[in-house]
Design goal:
heterodimer; A: alpha/beta; 7 helices; B: Uridine Diphospho-n-acetylenolpyruvylglucosamine Reductase, domain 3; Alpha-Beta Plaits; 3 domains; eight-stranded antiparallel sheet; FAD binding (chain B); Oxid_FAD_bind_N (chain B); FAD-linked_Oxase-like_C (chain B)
Chain lengths: 254, 503
Amino acid sequence: FQVGLLVSVKRFFLFLFEIRVKPDKSGVVTDGVKHSMNPFCEIAVEEAVKLKEKKLIKEVVAVSCGPQQAQETIRTALAMGADRGIHVQVAGKDYENLGPLQVSKIMAALAKKEEAQLVILGKQAIDDDCNQTGQMTAALLDWPQGTFASEVSFEGDKLKVVREIDGGLETITINTPAVVTADLRLNTPRYATLPNIMKAKKKKIAIMKPEDLGVDITSRVEVLRVDEPPQREAGVKVETVQDLVGKLKDSGLV
Amino acid sequence: MWCGVSAALWPVRCRSFLLQCRNICSGNVGRKSVVDGVLPSFRSVCGEDGVSLSEAIREQHGKDESVHKCCPPDVVVFPRSVDEVSALAKICHMHCLPIIPFGTGTGLEGGVGAMKGGVCFSLRNMDQVLDLHVEDFDVTVEPGVTRKALNSYLRDTGLWFPVDPGADASLCGMAATSASGTNAVRYGTMRENIMNLEVVLADGTIINTAGKGRRPRYDWPDETSQSRKENAGYNLTNLFVGSEGTLGIITKTTLRLYGIPEAVVSAVCSFPSVQAAVDSTVQILQSGVPIARIEFLDDVMIDACNRFSSLSYPVTPTLFLEFHGSERSLEEQVNTSEEITQCNGGSDFQWAKDEETRSRLWKARHDAWYAALALRPGCKAYATDVCVPLSMLPQIIVETKEDLIANKLTGPIAGHVGDGNFHCLMVLDPNDPDELQRVHLFTERLARRALAMSGTCTGEHGVGLGKRALLVEEMGAQAIQVMQSLKETLDPKNLMNPGKVLQ
């Protein structure tokens, strides 16, 4: 059973680094911050490559939407084992306003164009925590979806997905073509090794624009303001229980 | 010096081994008023937020992960750049205040205790990864960057920094203690992997031990031998590596990086005796297998691990091996090693390539510390650390085990046999003074046993507070005298981490 697979990757700050809000509160500081692939996207790529190694998938295509630097993220996916990449160019203000709806329209268009049978994404991106792109993509394509996947396997031509839900684990069987979003425990992504990074340089990345896919990326959402969470204030020590009760009453908590 | 100590003083010294700080640290009124006097200057250097007198913060910065009691400094400062470190050092120098550098507090020999009070320089706000040169395989980092943080940063480049002491320690701190780890047998310790250091001396002078911005090659432990070498002047870099904060504050370190291994294979093998396990190790090394990790667990430790992790390894000396390389070279490495172990009576050789099975195979080794603690719930653990030439390893382990049994001590053994380095994880009840004393005496006997076999009293943890007397025995009076002279030259007022390494 040989299918083609699209995996979507997003580029954001390396998860270790502290995020600072810009003084004009229009967004976060991006200059000079180390960028890397979204951790959940790494897990998605790893799953795609694993499926290919098991010979269940014919080809893995890594897709990223963004400015020139998005190609670095695609190269990392190629170094992990993807076969080729597609870079959908979105830059400047358009990129700042690019949200899940626009990306899912692009993914849906690409899935049809590439005749993919499986689309894998990370469950959410660590910048906006939206957790929407996978679901919207499935809806636009009218495909079944297996989200928050912690296990994915083929059963004949159906897909068995074990999902992490609040109550525990839910196992579902869905038809293909399908959309899957990767949760944390799906796998442990491999590191890109130097020889694979070198090989990845020779793999192809096709470049296109949203218009080429017939997608309109105007955003219907406008960011008004970005604020940091309130700074933690120092606590106050009180001498007696009466003081404590008094303070609780004063602040309206009791 | 130590020879002059009479037997009558031994109980005193034993108690003081673990309770050393109490008398020395308790308030020096004169020094406190000096500290109060310099607080405004400190604040003008690193800002209001950069100076802390709170009890909680001072206590956090007065202890590490050893059994030595907490010895808080008088004040903790948080410089943000090397210029701030230098300015603060100048102030301390002028007022004769002790300076204690602090990275992550993950040390194991009490190196951060403020024996004479003073100023703790917490370097965690200097956390930048600078100057990564992927094609030259080097990177420069500040003290706030830890080992795991650096490897995460490097993940997309295909490079990593392999020295792995277990804890997620500050890399500059690892430089200061010349840390080592489980894969030293292949990749070397910190000493072999540091190309340059930026150090602030006791009087605030900033130096670069190999010249500013330079990244010279010394000799590489593996196959890539670049020809651009530099050999100019005295080797200052290696003077500061391992100086444990007694000669200067390390504010930058330039590290050698390696390519992430293409594939990893882990293996486990049981042996009928310690000798058989060590013989196999020696032969594997001699046959040129570039083994990455080779860890030894004795029967007590394996038994503890079996119980803790519900495993069923045979309860005999066991080796855990790890191989790094390309797919093809791994096959050869594993086959050669398997043959060697069989020739030495090894059995139950299991190996695995995929992550999950490898983790399962190595689980025993990874959980060794907790498995040891689980042998006696409610107790604490202290890891001894000695290193001997490989040929002496079976003898010292056998003698050590006899010592443990004779003294009714719990001390499962785990070791990095590739380097002749092993640890007894002493599980002890901190509230039992008799046991504390027996453990202390045992540790000293162990260190002296190692010294008698041409070994060293510390394989990787450093000298810190507890091994100063042993250092004297190991080095001999003349070498210690030279060390003392160097210390007096670089730090005549003895402000840099007083009370550590040298007496």
